[in-house]
Amino acid sequence: MMTPYPEMVKKNRKKHLIIKDEEAASCPQIEANTRTIPGIISQRGCAYAGCKGVVVGPIKDMVTITHGPVGCGYYSWGTRRNKARADDTTSKDKIYSQLCFTTDMQEPDIVFGGEKKLARMIDEVVAAFHPRAINICATCPVGLIGDDLGAVAKAAEERHGIQVLAYNCEGYKGVSQSAGHHIANNNVMEKIVGKGTERKPGRFVINLLGEYNIGGDGWELERILKEIGYTVNCVLTGDSSYLDIKNLHLADLNLVQCHRSINYIAEMMEAKYGTPWLKVNFIGIDATNQSLRQVARCFGDEELVRKTEEIIERETARVTPTLDQYRKVLLGKTAFAIVGGSRSHHYQYLLRDLGMEMIIAGYEFAHRDDYEGRQVIPTIKTDADSKNIPELHPVPDEKMYKEAHVHLNMSKEKFDELNAEVPLNYYEGIYPNMKSGQIIIDDANHHEVEVLIQTAKPDLFLSGVRDKYIVHKMGVASKQLHAYDYSGPYAGYNGAINFARDVAKALTTPAWKLITPPWEKEKEKRSESDA
Ligand code: CFM
Question: In terms of pTM, does the model score above 0.90?
Fold first, then answer.
């Protein structure tokens, strides 16, 4: 795979690849969250995509304005399938996540500045849509010409009496969309969280952080959590509202599904409010069951534990016969996953439920802690690119800070016992879950993916949007894990059935027999010319 590279590239790319060795004492160091080598096209997005497209865009009752050329706005519109619906706190006309708002900057705006146009647009948006609050996301040219988004936002807040948040998430900030996650987390934490005063009723109030309701995943999880007896205060940011985010600090426990995109808020809430967080994974039956047991354990309530076991037993029994049918087709099959910054770990569990193995796992923009575990964070060197992103260090809130055991309504002794059993405020990364010989790759590119497919010949490729069709042309089934190819949900119990059905269909389609992979064609050509 490395052979065609010049020496310098080879040296660089080797650091982004590790092979699991179960005998080794710990995970070897991987290089991650560093610049892609110029000239190599990989699957990454930009800071604007991470801020607007991933974290703040889905907040349903806020209008999110893209300040920039129309292309940035258009391509961030509706592509991620983060679903939202009207609920008790949000009337039907206050759902904006499916709409596209952009200042459509033209040449004169680039030359003479776009601040006036942006201010005018905010006025129009307020007059026409009356949103509860507004986000403004910067694109590359905004930073280059120096439009002052903060000043425009501040003036608009005074004119309209609603919050207007400015995000300096110019596409070129950082090395990938990961920078945009951080910028968005900072602003949401500083400007929205803590503004509310209404704790939702219930004894066990939780937030589900880093769950974006792709294809309805969050709704399946809410169904289960609510039935067990939790009050789901907010799903951040899948189907979330500005009103709920203001009250984020009033929950007892934060569950973290996608560590990469939201660990900043989890950590900052721990510092400011003392709220403990628990890394969960609701992709796969065993994973879901284990996460539910750990969440129940956090509250140490007997009735909650009993109800959790009851739901686990009922739901597992309900879906197992169907999954068993699909397992007949899927048993022994192999998969690759090269996706974002968390799913390549989460889906390993669901594949194992179905008798499959993920032999190669890759992330586009994860950091070392997502591979190796959070214990490496203090050793990560900040480079020029990460210094671009402000690092906030909130101090304990005078009125609202409570120690973690107080949040969980238990004695300090009980909490220490809990902490020994359940890894609170910690993520172990992808490495421990993999098996010897399996490969982990960071920021893979098309050439590398092609060689890996030719060599390891997986039955299924869990892909991104752009590499999906290359994989098809190589005669391998692919399932796009970002928007699920219009299917889903894939989380929880019902999600496992949907995923098993889709994968079984993908692997058994006769289409693959009709395709000759390019390397086979090469062989055919060669033997023809030999003859
Ligand atoms: Fe988290 Fe995500 Fe992901 Fe992500 Fe994403 Fe996504 Fe993803 Mo696409 S927040 S890191 S930036 S789980 S949009 S919902 S699927 S790359 S693996």
Answer: yes
